[in-house]
């Protein structure tokens, strides 16, 4: 059953719209290229952001930590995923890859959430506080990547009591198998709605 979304209850979480993910010249784009192009990712992201802005729904930027060379040097338990990001300098601080894609720039009224170190946009950030202070109960998740940051943020949001919507063609992954797991296997265990872009736009 499709939920209805309006500006009094809903926030759009735009997760990790970095050049390294979304631009063809980005460091990570080659790994997501096949899936991103198969779902028409960029056009869907543009359509959704434009539509929610028109509807007056607030946009929350939910960015991953921008890499620095000395990341995790004194940490007890960095994950292999984090160490890989350090080695690649994914979204490196001060670099073009660590800037938001030109089509997804913050505008007046948007909320910039503190950077997350792991996968969840809620863990150790101010996302929950900001949503509560804006009186919002529903979150729509779009951006990168389906089976990591999108899934982790959605799961955490559900545990905190938010109504969670995933948009399966407004995200991407490193493989078709990962996309399938994110939306067909894992998503239904925590999300309240799993929609296409077309279905979401009709519900706004």
From TrEMBL:
Domain Isochorismatase-like: residue ranges: 11-194
Keywords per UniProt: Hydrolase
GO molecular function, one term: hydrolase activity
One family name in Pfam for this protein: Isochorismatase
Keyword Hydrolase in record: yes
Parts forming coiled coils: none
Keyword Mitochondrion: no
PANTHER family per UniProt: ISOCHORISMATASE-LIKE DOMAIN-CONTAINING PROTEIN, PEROXYUREIDOACRYLATE/UREIDOACRYLATE AMIDOHYDROLASE-RELATED
Family: Belongs to the isochorismatase family.
Name assigned to this protein: Cysteine hydrolase
Organism: Paenibacillus lignilyticus
């Amino acid at each position: 059953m499709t939920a209805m979304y309006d500006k009094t209850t809903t926030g759009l979480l735009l997760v990790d719209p970095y050049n390294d993910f979304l631009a063809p010249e980005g460091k990570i784009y080659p790994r997501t290229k096949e899936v991103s192009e198969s779902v028409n990712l960029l056009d869907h992201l543009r359509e959704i952001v434009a539509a929610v802005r028109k509807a007056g729904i607030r946009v929350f930027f939910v960015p991953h930590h921008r890499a620095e060379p000395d990341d995790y040097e004194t940490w007890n338990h960095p994950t292999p995923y984090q160490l890989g990001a350090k080695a690649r300098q994914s979204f490196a601080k001060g670099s073009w890859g660590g800037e938001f894609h030109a089509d997804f720039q913050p505008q007046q009224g948007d909320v910039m959430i503190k950077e997350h170190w792991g996968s969840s946009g809620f863990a150790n950030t101010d996302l929950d506080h900001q949503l509560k202070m804006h009186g919002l109960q529903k979150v729509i998740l779009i951006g990168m990547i389906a089976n990591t940051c999108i899934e982790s943020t959605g799961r955490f949001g559900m545990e905190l009591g938010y109504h969670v919507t995933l948009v399966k063609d407004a995200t991407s992954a490193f493989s078709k198998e990962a996309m399938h797991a994110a939306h067909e296997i894992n998503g239904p265990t925590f999300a309240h709605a799993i929609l296409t872009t077309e279905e979401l736009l009709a519900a706004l």
